[in-house]
Amino acid sequence: MTCNDMLDKIYGFDGGEMFSLRDRLQIAVHVVFCPRCAARVARVEALRDILRTGFFPVPPPGIADSVMDRIYSEAFDMTADMPFDAEESSPEVPFGGWVVTGLIILLSLATAFMGLDFISVAAAQGSSFLLPVGITIGVVVTGYGALFIGSHLKELSDRFRLR
Question: I want to staple 84 with a disulfide (CB 3.0 to 4.6 A). Which of 9, 51, 91, 109 is the partner?
Answer without folding.
Answer: 91
